[in-house]
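Checked the freezer inventory, then went back to the computational side. Two predictions to log before the end of the day. The first one is the construct we discussed on Monday; recording sequence and tokens without edits.
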Amino acid sequence: MGQKELWVVNPKRFPDPQADWRAAGALDVLDNARVVATVDEAIADCHWVVGTSTRSRRIPWPVVDAAELATKVSALPEQSRVAVLFGREDNGLNNEELRRCNYHLQIPAASDYSSLNLAMAVQVVCYEIYQKGLDGQTQVAWDRPMATAGDVEGLMTHLDSALTSSAFIDAENPGQIMTRLRRMFARVTLDDTEVQMLRGVCRHLERLGN
């Protein structure tokens, strides 16, 4: 389906001979795969992150299916790096990993068995992205580089600190404020200037708190 970059997070075994014989002509993808220790490391330089999940969450996140994902990806600014996170075969992505995502992706399936296995889910998503690329839709231009996941994570950490030091967040009982703020920022695509502006706001709040 034309995807060349594979990142593997903390695998039990890699390289794995089973992966080689299952690759069916895509050994170049395996040979060039990047192995990292954490999800944060894998997505640090990505501008838009989507996590696959079949379960509903107590605080719902924006959800797309595979076809909607392909449409959104095609409309992102040029040079955007997009990551699609696929979880573990047995229990998928955990809540902390899913909070790193702009959107959650669900693939509709029959209710008697609504969860696809990992390989099938990857194939469905990659197929939709490939098909969307065939229609020749041009990605939009943007005046500033898009913020990466690492940039946004730095903003979230700074915002948490600033809101706590200014007493907006009760350190003893923070509740779900940061989770909801993460969800709010996940619904928009920030550029690097917007992140720096917001970090400036955080610095101002920290001075007020001191």
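The second is the one RB wanted added to the comparison set:
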Amino acid sequence: MEDRVPTGIQGFDRLVGGGFPRGTVNLLSGPAGSGKSLFGLHFAYNGAALFGENSMVVVLEETRRSLERAMASYGMEVGPYEREGRFLLVDIGELRTDEPERVVGFDEIRGFLDAALPRSGARRLVLDSLSAIGLYYGSAEQLRERMFSFTRFLRARDVTTLLITESEEGAGLTRFGLEQFLADSFIYLGLEEIKGDLRRTLTVRKMRFTRHDAAKHPVHVTSAGLVVLDQEKVM
């Protein structure tokens, strides 16, 4: 079997043959409130806590303090793993003390990762989110070219990456309409109103190098975080 990187998210890994193929660049998209950031935090935290892999989370919109509170509320205590150097949470705005609110592009993120990945020994990387980086570019052509170069850079590193982007209601599956074509896999988290209630769903829309379940499945957010009901389908 090809080397897999399990997410540890209940129900998800069974949909994709045990996890992401190692060394791939994977995309996660969905509207606000669908659970994207929580999925990414699970992937990184479980890497350190369950699978002995150093993990790095790089955030561009949320603050470190906000994410630490979110993780603690779902039972993810990162302190011990941070002290051991197995989990690293990087708030780009916090690092940029001169201009913390300035939008950064792929070249700046690449420069940071070029130095940080070898030092950290990270085998898992989460970048949240591409939507913030994309605002740096003035045209779709320029964004596509720089994003393509960035994904090639990531594949050349010994790291399995989860890139997070967002979708807007009625405006397509991703923020810029091109992210899904540059990634090795594409997972979509939906948020649908059914009989007056909002229902979270997950669909694996694409995954290179592997067979995968392509059905839409319910997702629950429990006290322990995300649970994918892989045996149930949303019709």
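For RB: DSSP finds eight helices and eleven strands in the chain. The two ends are 32 Å apart (CA to CA). Let me know if you want it refolded.
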